[in-house]
Design a protein that fits this description.
This protein is an alpha/beta fold. About 60% of the residues lie in helices and about 5% in strands. A 5-stranded parallel β-sheet has the order 2-3-4-1-5, sandwiched between helices. Strand 3, helix 15 and strand 4 form a beta-alpha-beta unit. Keywords: Repeat. It comes from Fusarium oxysporum f. sp. radicis-cucumerinum.
Length: about 475
């Protein structure tokens, strides 16, 4: 076989192997458009390779040491130069097309991965380094093969996506330094509300014996839909303030009512539950602000650069492998960041904020920060945010809170929960068969349920203890008169 034919045979064999290797092994219905196009090119390359290799096989001598057979093979190899040139051109075209389709498949996969990274803001150093290499490789390929303006625009879009992914990663790295383990520990420890206890606050069909509960419901609903500023919920110890606040934050009905206020803007929700018996990161202003900032930036990562400009460029420029060690222990630094978040009109242009803070009385006072410092700070923050921020807070009935938050936008919890406590006592006791027997005439149990509810005076903790004692007494055969 002539040397040229041997070279051609080698090239064709390698091209055939390469095309088989790079084509997706997935079923057709799982393949992307780029992968399916690559499969079509592969099939054409295989057909061309088979055709050329068959023709070359016929030019081989069975015995390369036989002069006669070598002469015959030489004659067979003298096929049409025109045909040979055509096949070589087809081979070059096939190789070029295979390369272009492979590049297209790489674009498709890289775009998908970059979009995924941009959405979740997470990636390993290896992932990001690999993606940048892919983009660089494709840029080089575009230059070499001159794919034209459309391909260059595709590369440009890839680079933009890469930058978007990088911004997301930078935001995530800053937030990782801002977060702390105790962030929502208190919230998770608050018990769920009894189904009938606080349902009245949103249920328009509920009618109760106490007009104050109905008025409280109306005030809160109006504040969510059209109001502004601070809504203060006060109550005695054990009245269920934290349980109510947890119920409110999780309520879909609350979100629906706030949607009327947000009027097309993105609604950002955040919460913080003070806990006097927790760590410093559960009962300090620093912890509260870090939590509110973290929750907000987690929902709006595009704001991170504006809230923490001093860290953004620094973290953005770090190598992938470099660890990020930002320390947010300085109270003034956190206050300034919170101020940038709520005072910058550009940040609130298409967003509004609903912050819920439970247990102001459980804030741990220090010589530097006291209740009388915390309260005006919260009030001024809401005023600074104008129509873009609502703040729902709860506390015990301390004068410092009642005086600052006095007015129509507030409710005393124990005055609103009579019906909820009554239903709780009734339903709990009626699960006991012995109590049901006592309820039959001539005893009746309505008076006992009402007596427990009235004496509770809105304190759920007291009610829970008393109902458990009554339940145990019924199991022990206690008479109705003894229960009273």
């Amino acid at each position: 076989m002539p040397e040229d034919d041997e070279k051609l045979g080698f090239v064709i064999s390698e091209l055939s192997k390469a095309s088989k290797f790079i084509v997706s092994k997935k079923p057709t219905w799982q393949q992307t458009d780029a992968e399916q196009a690559l499969a079509v090119v592969d099939e054409k390359c295989q057909q061309l390779a088979d055709k050329i290799l068959r023709k070359l096989d016929r030019t081989k001598a069975d015995d390369p040491y036989s002069k006669r057979q070598s002469a015959v093979a030489a004659l067979k190899s003298m096929w049409s130069e025109k045909e040979k040139k055509a096949l070589k051109k087809d081979t070059d075209d096939c190789r070029r097309l295979l390369y272009l389709q492979l590049t297209s498949a790489m674009w498709s996969e890289t775009i998908k991965r970059l979009k995924d990274l941009a959405e979740i803001g997470l990636a390993s150093a290896e992932d990001l380094t690999s993606l940048h290499k892919h983009v660089a490789t494709m840029q080089h390929g575009v230059h070499v093969t001159s794919l034209g303006q459309e391909a260059e625009e595709t590369i440009a879009s890839l680079v933009r996506l890469s930058n978007k992914a990088l911004d997301s990663i930078t935001s995530h790295r800053i937030l990782n330094s801002l977060v702390f383990p105790e962030k929502h520990v208190r919230y998770t420890k608050v018990p769920n509300a009894y189904s009938e206890t606080f349902g009245w606050i949103f249920d328009e069909n509920v009618t109760g014996k106490h007009q104050q509960a109905l008025q409280g419901r109306m005030l809160f609903r109006e504040w969510l839909e059209t109001g502004d500023g601070v809504f203060h919920i006060s109550g005695k110890p054990g009245a269920g303030k934290s349980t109510l606040m947890r119920f409110l934050f999780r309520s879909q009905r609350k979100k629906d009512l706030l949607a009327s206020w947000s009027t097309g803007r993105k609604l950002v929700n955040s919460k913080f539950f003070f806990w006097k018996h927790g760590s410093d990161m559960e009962n300090s202003v620093n912890a509260m602000l870090r939590t509110l900032i973290f929750d907000t930036l987690e929902q709006c990562p595009e704001l991170t650069a504006s809230v923490f400009p001093q860290y953004w460029s620094r973290v953005h420029a770090l190598p992938w492998q470099a660890p990020v060690d930002l320390r947010f222990h300085d109270d003034d630094e956190i206050r300034e960041a919170f101020g940038r978040l709520i005072e910058n009109r550009n940040l609130g242009e298409n967003r509004c904020f609903f912050f819920l803070i439970d247990g102001l009385d459980e804030f741990q006072e220090t010589p530097k920060e006291r209740y009388k410092d915390l309260v005006p700070f919260l009030s001024n923050s809401v005023m600074a945010a104008a129509q873009d921020m609502k703040l729902c807070v709860s506390s015990r009935e301390y004068d410092v809170f009642l005086e600052t938050f006095k007015g129509p936008k507030g409710s005393e919890l124990q005055k609103l929960t009579y019906d909820g406590i009554y239903n709780f006592v009734r339903d709990k006791l009626q699960r006991n068969q012995n109590f049901i027997e006592l309820a039959k005439p001539p005893h009746g149990t309505e008076s006992l349920i009402s007596k427990v509810t009235n004496r509770a005076d809105g304190v759920f903790l007291w009610v829970s203890l008393v109902v458990n004692l009554l339940d145990d007494a019924c199991d022990g055969g206690t008479s109705f008169s003894e229960l009273q």
